[in-house]
Amino acid sequence: MLKNKLTTLFILGLLLSACQSGQERLPFIGEPDIVEKVVDGKTIADTIYPTIPPFQFLNQDSTLVTDRFFDNKIYVTNFFFTHCPSICPTMQRNLLEVYKKYKNDDRIAFLSHSIDFKYDQPSVLKKYATNLGVDNDQWQFVTGSKADIYGMSDRYLVFTSEDANVPGGYDHASFLVLIDHDKHIRGTYDGTNKEHIQQLLGDIEILLQEYK
Amino acid sequence: MKHFALFVILVLVTFLAYLSSCQSNVSIQTAQYAVNGQKIYKTHCENCHGGKGEGLGTLYPPLTDQKFFAENRKKLACIVRHGLQEEIEVSGQKYDQPMPANTVLTDLDIAYVLTYITTTFGGIDSTYTHEEVKSALAECRP
Q1: Are A79 and A113 in contact (CB under 8 A)?
Q2: Domain of B110: which CATH number?
Q3: Dihedral, CA of residue B52, residue B56, residue B57 and residue B61, to nearest 10
Q4: pTM listed for this prediction
Q5: In the predicted model, is pLDDT for residue A8 greater than 70?
Q6: Which tens digits make up the pLDDT trace of A19-61?
Q7: What band does B21 get if pLDDT is binned at 50, 70 and 90?
Q8: Do A89 and B56 touch (CB under 8 A)?
Q9: CB A91, CB A188: distance < 8 Å
């Protein structure tokens, strides 16, 4: 009888530990390239996940910010515009909570791309950031040409488009995207969904563990 | 038997007194307006002004200032219908982000949502009535 109980406990313990080790690493997101290469005369398949290409944009302080700013950091990024009447305020309100939690923690940064390339000049972005309650460069608000910004949104797998038929004139998804040190996408979250925000907060901690 | 009838009456009176005390100072009409207003608030207002009417930083003002509501009661319907372009001051803080118009909301919708906002966040206990909206809208400055 006792032996039976011990066996059950042992199996339960095994199951639990299996679950935990599965949760400790975030997945890589995006369609991978399978590259064949020859090592020691044998052909092996290597899986290469998409990365965010180099970029440069003008930020809220009218200075150029590039992908180098985010080197050796993880970052959370999204797409918005300052006079967006629909999903942005909720998304930014939620991201603000994440920013406040990690304020002055140089392991993590935030990057919001404006998709209103006509109106959201750096001075407009500066005023918006200040009013939102962002007072350091840990959260970058950037503007760029239509081709550059919309091109980047494709790379981050976030839908954006200029559309006169939607309120505000621009249509876009409210996704927050989590990027690692190697510019791989490691998570996407609906920025208007409280449960997704909790998931993001947990995933940030899991990702930070990779760089301890 | 007589005692039983007396007992029943006593119970009924107590029950009615209890019911009316539950209503406190918010009338049934106000409560119904507020329930309808909550749905409208979630669809048209909550994004910017927040689930508890807390606003967002200094971008969007909070909807919790009883004094502002009392002093600007007539303007409220106009602000909801036509939006705001000029700067306003709420609780000593200036806000200058334009507010969009809400042209899809009917006069009655505006009465519902203003009743919800002023009673739930603004500490006011009276209905913002349909008639009040109509007369306020007639006097909106263009």
Answers
A1: yes
A2: 1.10.760.10
A3: -80
A4: 0.81
A5: no
A6: 454 557 999 999 898 888 888 888 888 889 999 999 999 999 9
A7: low
A8: yes
A9: no
CA distances from A36 to A31, A48, A129, B108 (A): 16, 10, 46, 67
CB contact under 8 A, A85 and B46: no
> Given CB atoms, is A167 within the 8 Å cutoff of chain B?
yes
Q: How much of chain B exceeds pLDDT 70, in percent?
A: 84
Cross-chain residue pair A83–B57, CB shorter than 8 Å:
no
**Average pLDDT of the residues in B47-72:** 95
Residues 6+ apart with CB under 8 A from A200: A76, A98, A176, A178, A187, A189
Query: Closest residue of B to A87, CA-based?
Result: B47
Smallest CA–CA distance from A91 into chain B, residue:
B47
A33 vs A39: CA distance, rounded Å: 18
Query: CB-CB: which of B48, B58, B98 is closest to A131?
Result: B58
- B85-123 pLDDT, tens digit each: 999 999 999 999 999 999 999 999 999 999 999 999 999
Name the domain count of chain B: 1
Model ipTM over 0.90 = no
Boundaries of every domain in chain A? 2-210
Question: Contact A89/B97, CB-based, under 8 Å?
Answer: no
Q: Which of A86, A93, A123 to mutate to test the interface with B (most CBs of B within 10 A)?
A: A93
Give the number of beta-carbon pairs within 8 Å between A and B: 32
Tokens of A39: 């090592």
Burial A138-168 (b: 16+ CB within 10 A, else e): bbbbbbbeeebbbebbebbebebeeeeeeeb
Domain span at residue B32 reads: 2-139
Complete edge-to-edge strand list for the sheet that includes strand A139-143: A64-66, A56-59, A139-143, A108-114, A74-80, A175-179, A185-190
Q: Residues of A with CB below 8 A from B51's CB?
A: none
Residue with tokens 């954006």: A160
A92·B56 Cβ contact <8 A: yes
CATH no. for A2-210: 3.40.30.10
User: Does A133 touch chain B if contact means CB atoms closer than 8 Å?
Assistant: yes
Pick from B47, B56, B60: CB nearest A86: B47
